[in-house]
Amino acid sequence: MVKIGDIEVGAFPLLLAPMEDVSDPPFRALCKEQGADVVYTEFISSEGLIRDAAKSVMKLDIYEKERPVGIQIFGAVLESMLRSVEIVEASGPDIIDINFGCPVKKVVSKGAGAGILKDIDLMVKLTEAMVKHTKLPVTVKTRLGWDHDSIKIVEVAERLQDVGCKAISIHGRTRAQMYKGDADWVPIAEVKNNPRMHIPVFGNGDVNSPERAKEMRDVYGLDGAMIGRASIGYPWFFREVKHYFETGTHLAPPTMVERVEAARRHLKMSIDWKGEKLGVFETRRHYTNYFKGIPDFKKYRMKMVTSDDSASVFEAFDEVLEKFGDFQFA
Asked: What is the per-residue DSSP string for 228-268?
């Protein structure tokens, strides 16, 4: 049984990755229902929290049905990070996660996210200070290194563990790679196989099939898999992986009725949480995957992703069910 601090999270937990404008409460709820063992919020700016920026504060919303849930924060200024820990604690998460992996330029340019991979001493210092500042388990999400020539992830992980980090999730790319090329899981396995390591080591990057998840577990020996892009618009990925682990066979894909129902619920929950305009807009990115593989679908997809009012999107769902209700997904 894998534990993050004192929290039991399963034999080989599947974690929903923190994804900007994706890992919000509606989507986390759907993933949890489909078997995600741990879910993380979208990453939250420590500076935004301190300024009481509306978007940052809104991301603190968590719900009992999500637990265990981690709130992820990013930043590079010690005082701001410590103050944000206090704000995050008040929201009652189970875990506080530090983002040392986001490769986006606007984050990196401030020395945060993957930008901190240029200053490992600061990375360790921030982690240690945050661990001392909270009773909640602190975890870290990071990348292999800044670029191929600066990969020291075995040493980095060991140092983070030594200052009290309770688990580490490692994306198998460098910052220089962004999301290009293949994720390299070998260095992540080297972290796990380091005899000094005793905290859970989770792999991230290119876990895009049940077979790949099994490979991460059985070949690379990692403690769990963090799932990102494979789950967008497809929360069933978690149940499919677990079914494959248990049976060695593939679960039948969700039916059209299941997909339409999930899309409806997703949109409704988003509107309830964010309001009509934002709820409609931020759910759009999921529809391509909800209905992937249907021939002659462009007309319906365009209606879903261009309509500004929810009534039109709900209408599109009804039209899809009526026209494609018997469609068999491969």
From this structure: -GGGTT-TTHHHHHHHHHHHSSPPPPPPHHHHHHHHHHHHH
